[in-house]
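Reading a protein record of the kind used here takes only a little practice. An example makes this concrete, so a full record is given next.
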Amino acid sequence: MNKITDKTTYAVSGMTCGGCVARVKAALSQFSADVKVTLEPPQAVLSAPSVDISALNTALITAGNYQLSEISNAPIIANGVSEKNSWFTTYKPLILVFAYILLVTLAAEYSAGSFELHRFMPNFMAGFFLVFSFFKMLDLAGFANSYSMYDMLAKRFSAYGYIYPFIELGLGTSYLLGYTPMLINLLTLIVMAFSSIGVILAVMNKQKIKCACLGTGFNLPMTTVTIIEDLLMAGMAAWMLI
């Protein structure tokens, strides 16, 4: 991991209490003279660690179901100078995914001969959930691990991180088939509104963690963009319930 100072910050998944913090700190202390571990946000700061992240995670196995991950929005070092990616470069994968879904949905409206909002929204949401669930399932275990770092339910029940992509798959398929619209919109509103709570808390606490919305294939930082993404789906579902 690139470092600007002699201190390296890692996100820590799997911690739920003060005992977890103590166990993680004890496991990491053998590799650094100064280790600080916090629960909110779930992070570990090591002063000049003597080994890489792989060795640190190997040591954590003996302490419990914990794992370190690199901070996704850490500054990039180029020719000895720190610089951050532009907003567009950072969110390019997410922008392209939304653009493709929007393009296909608009094409479907064009083929129908008219634009109807109540037809456009379910089709757009079908594309959203199907595509996003696909990226999550490319690395289901990795997604579940990342998701448990900020989602309130996944923090307490790790199995929920494995189930969530299938919930999105079910919602996407239901929107595509037009199956029980009222029930599906209500479920979408509940799922996305609840999911946004963990995202909002993570952003408010300034947790520098990776957003798992597109699985583990892209380094998307957790920011207000993720909040907008979740609330957009919840808002569309709420509008269709009216």
About this structure: The chain has a mean pLDDT of 87.
